[in-house]
Amino acid sequence: MCVLLSANNFTGTIPDTFGNLKNLTDLIDGSELSGKIPSFIGNWTNIERLRISDLNGSGSTFPDLQDMNNLTVL
């Protein structure tokens, strides 16, 4: 099953509820997100493509991605 979030109009911080998206395979940010990249993205073990760019706000460390064995595009 492919679960894709792309070309959306999200604004604000990445919600904590996104941590529940265990089957997410693609997150392609085309929105106005702000804040830090949450550590829970390291739990998205089915993710294949993760594209987050132009995140507004203060700098943050990138979460641990070592368990993202399916990740092909970062």
Give a quick rundown of the structure.
The chain has strands at 3-6, 11-12, 24-28, 32-33, 49-51. The chain has 74 residues and is mainly β.
Tell me what you see in this structure.
It comes from Salix brachista. The structure is a single chain. The chain has 74 residues and is mainly β. It has one domain. It has no helices and five strands. It has strands at 3-6, 11-12, 24-28, 32-33, 49-51. A three-stranded parallel beta sheet has the order 1-3-5, with no helix packed on it. The protein has a two-stranded parallel ribbon with strand order 2-4.
SSE order: EEEEE
DSSP summary: helix tally: 0
Q: Estimate what percentage of residues fall within beta strands.
A: 15-25%
Outline: globular
Cα separation of the termini: 20 Å
Q: Mean of residue pLDDT? A: 79
| Major beta sheet summary | 3 strands, parallel
Total number of beta strands: 5
**Helix-residue proportion:** under 10%
Which runs of at least 5 residues are low in confidence (pLDDT < 50)?
Answer: none
What is the alpha-carbon Rg in Å? 11 Å
Largest sheet: spatial strand order = 1-3-5
The number of distinct structural domains comes to 1
- By secondary-structure content and strand pairing, the structural class works out as mainly beta
Keywords:
LRR_dom_sf, two-stranded parallel sheet, mainly beta, 3-stranded parallel β-sheet
Please write out the topology.
Elements: E1 3-6, E2 11-12, E3 24-28, E4 32-33, E5 49-51
Keywords: Signal
Organism: Salix brachista
Protein name: Leucine-rich repeat-containing N-terminal plant-type domain-containing protein
